Every structure is written in C-alpha cells, then in structure tokens.
Amino acid sequence: MAVIAWTEIESFHNIRKYTSAHPEILNSNSVVSYRAKVKLHGTNAGIQIYQDGRVIAQSRTSELIDGADNAGFAKWVKTNEDKWAAIANDTDEDFVIFGEWVGPGIQAGVAVSEIPKKCFAVFSARHVSTEEDRLIVDPWLLQKLVEGIPDTYVLPWHGEDLEIGWNDSAEILTAVTSLINQWVDNVEKNDPWVENVFGVKGTGEGLVFYPRSKDHLGLKNFTNLVFKAKGEKHKNIKSAAPAQVNPEAAANVDQFVDMVLTEARLEQGVENVATRDESPMYDMKKVGKFLAWISADVQKETQDELEASGLTWKDVSKAVATKARLWYIEKAKL
User: Fold this and answer.
1) Is the pLDDT assigned to residue 264 strictly greater than 70?
2) Taking a C-beta distance cutoff of 8 angstroms, is the pair 59, 73 a contact?
3) pLDDT of 13-53, one tens digit each?
4) Distance CA 46, CA 56 (A)
5) What angle do CA 217, 220, 221 make, to 5 degrees?
6) What percent of the chain is predicted at pLDDT more than 90?
7) Percent of the chain with pLDDT over 70
8) Residue 29 DSSP SS3
9) Does the pLDDT of residue 271 top 90, yes or no?
C-alpha cells in the first residue's frame, strides 16, 4: 500500500511569495483567517484505516512493517489494531489519521521527550478518496474520531484567530509576523500543551498555522496556505526570526551553507535514511543516501534564499555536500 503523505509545510515568506505569484489560490479572498496548533518535535506518523479491516502504520515516507518500524510506532498501532479498525466501520469511511509520535527516546532537548510514555498526538485526518477534498483539522471532530484509543491525544487550537491579508504591504505583514514571533518565542520557552497534559515544563518546537476561513477550507487550500514557524533551536534555516516577510539572504557561498545546514536539518536527514529503531543511527554505508537526501532537501526548500542571495544551486551544491559529509563522519565516530 502506498504512503499517503502529510503535506510539506512552508514558511511565512514562502506563502507570501506563492500567493503573490498565484493569486487564484486565494479564491478571490486575499484575507485568510488562521488558527495555530503547537508543533511537536517527534516523528511524523500516520495510520491508514479501511472498511475492509486493514490498518496500516506509516512514517512520513514509508509503510511500517515488522522489521522496519519507526521508534515502535507500528508495534503500538498493532496493539490497538481493533480500535483503529472500528473507526472505519463506525463511520463507513476510509481514513488516514496524521499525527506526531512523541515521547522518551524519539527526540531530545524538548519537553515532549520528557513525558512518561510514548503517545500519538493527532493533528488531522483525511478521507481516503481521490474524489474528495476533505481534511479534518477541528480538534473536536478529531476527538470524536479517536475517542477511547489508549495513549492517543488530539492537539487543540493554540491562541486566538489570526487574520492575514496576503496582499497587504510588507509593513503591515511585518506587524503580523511580530505577533507570530512572540507566540513562537513563548512556545519555545515552554511548550504549553505538554505542560497542560503531562505537567512537564520545557522547550517547545514552534507553531503550525491552519487556514480556517470559509473560502480557504479543504485539502487543496490547506496545502497551498498552511505555514509553520519554528523556534531558534529547531529551524532548518538560520534566520533573524521564526516568521519573516522576506527570505534570509547570504553574502556568499560559505554563509549560505552555514545558514541552511542547521543541526535540525542535518538530524532530519539522518532520521530519513535510518529509522529510530536502527543501530547504529550513523552508518558510513548510508552516507551516500544521507547526502542525497540533504542535497535534495536543501535544493527544494531554499529556492527563495538562493534567489535572495544572488546564488544558484550549482554555485552551492558542492559546498553543501562537503559540509554535510564532514558532519556525518564526525557523528559516526562518536
């Protein structure tokens, strides 16, 4: 069964540029109402649920099966398989439920890694149909879907409604990003969801902003308009602030490489070529796959930064690969 992937989520300045170039995606309404959810630092996970009884655990990129798990997620899904299967039976719908698998041993340096047990934090569900554009993100509806399943939580809305006029001037949008950055700074200082649910204080990752206005609902609108803002410790690109109106610019190739090869991106590359159940995580036999993932990810995610810096991928590709390789080799020695 193919993976039904969770959407790639861009940054504020990416959405601003995209809506400017493709105003039709705003459906004749440039003012989008958003609500935020806390972004947890775990590993992306999903559960495909079918009316014929199939329950399939997946990571962001692959189906999880015996011998190819991801931090024990597939094993945990198996223990509750009957409860997950009941969702499709009770609703007469096929679903994929998306969330973050979090807890001890999955990540480090964040509050959610210090909770007593691993758990599944749900943030959305999608109807599995090529003809439907339905995405469920409302916490109340998600709670109704997963109610009674052990160690399963639903992420609530965080903060107030936020209206963003994507056609507004840079000056007006800067006032919006200032508010977003304040919210993210507070989450990074202390994850409010983790403290509220588990009584654990500590670092949070950031926020994800979901479009909620009537003209911008559904899977297609979500994919075009959702954006994230991460705290300093979890950025994939070093920038002045979590949310920016314009992309960060580098003065030269070395500065660009330093800007985009953050610890967060490098560790994400490791996670994508070696599951968290593998030992060792750093294996020189996989350095080629790691470098291929890093190169593809940087090229895909930093087009705006390259343009702002007056550089091309050809200018920086060798330097990106060299620095990433040296980082991986040092990690493998530990």
Assistant:
1) yes
2) yes
3) 999 999 999 999 999 999 999 999 999 999 999 999 998 99
4) 8
5) 45
6) 75
7) 96
8) coil
9) no
**What distance in Å separates the CA atoms of residue 111 and residue 231, rounded to the nearest whole number?**
14
Longest dimension (CA), the chain: 58
The β-bridge relationship of strands 119-127 and 95-102 is antiparallel
- Spatial contact of 144 and 110, defined as CB atoms under 8 Å apart: no
Give start-end residues of each CATH 3.30.470.30 domain in the chain: 41-154
How far, in whole angstroms, is CA 168 from its chain's centroid? 27
Mean of the per-residue pLDDT values of the chain = 92
What value does the mean pLDDT take over residues 166-172?
97
CA distance linking residue 321 with residue 225, whole number of Å? 31
Roughly how many angstroms between the first and final C-alpha of the chain, as a whole number?
37
> Could you tell me if 104 and 112 are in contact, meaning their C-beta atoms sit under 8 angstroms apart?
no
pLDDT of residue 1: 64
- At 149, phi and psi to the nearest 5? -90, 125
pLDDT score at 64: 86
Amino acid in position 333: K
- Report the b/e string of 58-90 with b at 16+ CB within 10 A: bbbeeebeeeebbbbbbebbeebeebbbebbee
Angstrom CA distances, 161 to 35, 42, 157, stand at 5, 26, 9
Fold of 41-154: D-amino Acid Aminotransferase; Chain A, domain 1 (3.30.470)
Least confident of 59-63, 245-249, 301-305, 321-325: 59-63
Closest CA to 60 of 51, 50, 49, 70: 70
Model's pTM, two decimal places? 0.91
